[in-house]
Amino acid sequence: MTENFDVAIIGTGSGNSLLTADYDRLKVAIIERDVFGGTCLNRGCIPTKMFVYAADVAETVRHSSRYGVDARLDTVRWNDIADRVFGRIDPIAAGGEDYRKSLDNVTVFNGEARFTGERTLEIRSADGSSRHIVADDIVLAAGASPRIPPIPGLSEIPYHTSDTVLRIRELPRSLIILGGGFVAAEMAHIFGSFGVDITIISRGTLLAREDEDISREFTRQYSDRFTTYLNADILEAAPGGDGTVRIDVRVDGERISVAAEALLVATGRTPASETLALDVAGVEVDAAGYVVTDKFLRTTVPGIWALGDITNPAQLKHTANAEARIVAHNLVHPDDLRAIDLWPIPHAVFAGPQIASVGLTEQELRRAGTRAYVTATHHYGDVAYGWAMEDTENFCKLIADAETRVLLGAHIIGPNASMLIQQLIQGMKFGQTVDEMARGMLYIHPALSELVENALLKL
Length: 459
Ligand SMILES: Cc1cc2nc3c(=O)[nH]c(=O)nc-3n(C[C@H](O)[C@H](O)[C@H](O)COP(=O)(O)OP(=O)(O)OC[C@H]3O[C@@H](n4cnc5c(N)ncnc54)[C@H](O)[C@@H]3O)c2cc1C
Ligand SMILES: NC(=O)c1ccc[n+]([C@@H]2O[C@H](COP(=O)([O-])OP(=O)(O)OC[C@H]3O[C@@H](n4cnc5c(N)ncnc54)[C@H](O)[C@@H]3O)[C@@H](O)[C@H]2O)c1
Description:
Elements: E1 2-10, E2 28-32, H1 38-42, H2 45-62, H3 78-102, E3 106-110, E4 112-115, E5 120-124, E6 130-140, E7 144-146, E8 174-178, H4 182-193, E9 197-201, H5 212-225, E10 227-229, E11 233-241, E12 244-251, E13 254-260, E14 262-265, E15 269-271, H6 278-281, E16 304-306, H7 317-332, E17 347-349, E18 355-359, H8 362-367, E19 373-379, H9 384-389, E20 395-401, E21 407-413, H10 417-420, H11 422-429, H12 434-439, H13 450-458
Parallel strand pairs: 1-2, 1-6, 2-3, 6-16, 8-9, 8-14, 9-10
Antiparallel strand pairs: 4-5, 5-6, 7-15, 11-12, 12-13, 17-18, 18-21, 19-20, 20-21
Helix pairs in contact: 2-3, 2-4
The chain binds flavin-adenine dinucleotide (FAD) and nicotinamide-adenine-dinucleotide.
């Protein structure tokens, strides 16, 4: 039997936030193949940042003698930290599911959806049973999953991804991390701060898509802190004896074997479009598998919409949330469509040190042949609060258009970068000039925001 719905939503991450009061009068199906609530809540942004906070506390203790405060880090109670994190999160996921199930107009399906026709979905449950539904509108909010590169031998050894590594019950003594992006940077900080011996294997430098000065400094600090193999070709994975795993790499022409108790694969995330049989519905995807949408977030098939990691390569929660707000409105207001406007998309990497960035990098400007830009860099160590922190390495780098004097890019490495950047995002968004941002208001003295003020003044 096929059941009919007004709207079907595939994925309960950002997709679950679509149901505004406008949807109360509609019959809605929500389909989820995994834990209710999606990546950010269950295995992404939120748990990682809760672990990062504990990691920052451990690092503060470790470095406290720099300030004349002698302290010793005795023990890290991993299970207590994990229980605190998941004791908060898991009930939210369960509560969210119960709430949706309690609504008269909503049916929650636990299973994997795929298209069997332009408006027809088959939902397969874990027990092998399947149901079919038809919906007038369908929202693709199925996110992305860890990408596992075809490394010889990898499928024969145990490894973690970001989906599983935070749920382990015992800290390994050593951990190899494959990849040099967001997940690698944050997980190295978490596990390294808790005393795990970290080896990072990256095919390039670390955070290579950041501004070149930021990536260089981050790579330098991580190479001091951890064992790193950069510009490495991963040759093979194999059991390493004594229950360890072994990764063979080639660096500068030399073959090196690295062994550790555990392995984390952090080599990017692939949009979940493949699982959905989108070709059956005629929904177009691009070469990388992202669902193609227009500015109203309509796919190439009328009545099918997409949002979040399945359509946006930025793969960030704040972009997915903004897209969910647009789809929520457009789906029920076909005569008053709103266009998505995400510019400028900021991001932060909650590593040790933190990174935050918005707008263009200097290498992007150079590649585009832009000549009329100016840059300024100011160090934490050159403002009063930075003296208090004894910071000698971190900085804020700004790039502005030399003629219009608006910001083209802002990049910060160092403590509180994710918060310091927010005023620069606002300035860019609302077209303020560097001069207005620098002198149009007072900066609290001697707050760390004087770092941004001074970088702006330099420009
Ligand atoms: C470790 C980690 C840390 C992160 N930290 C941050 C951060 O600090 N800040 C930030 O902005 N972003 C962060 N992100 C990215 C952020 O989590 C994602 O951009 C965001 O969660 C995407 O939301 P979404 O709704 O598109 O997808 P998701 O939240 O992934 O939701 C998709 C849902 O669809 C389900 N699904 C998939 N296919 C099917 C199917 N065929 N049938 C039924 N259900 C299906 C999935 O099970 C999933 O629950 C992080 C990601 C990771 C992995
Ligand atoms: N703080 C945050 O906002 C945050 C945190 C974690 C994840 N995320 C999101 O999740 C996404 C996925 O994170 P990620 O770190 O997995 O991806 P990423 O794209 O940031 O980094 C992937 C890394 O893997 C390497 N890599 C890719 N394919 C490889 C291969 N075949 N062999 C060897 N190395 C390979 C890349 O060179 C890169 O260093 C991010 O792009 C980001 O959008 C965001």
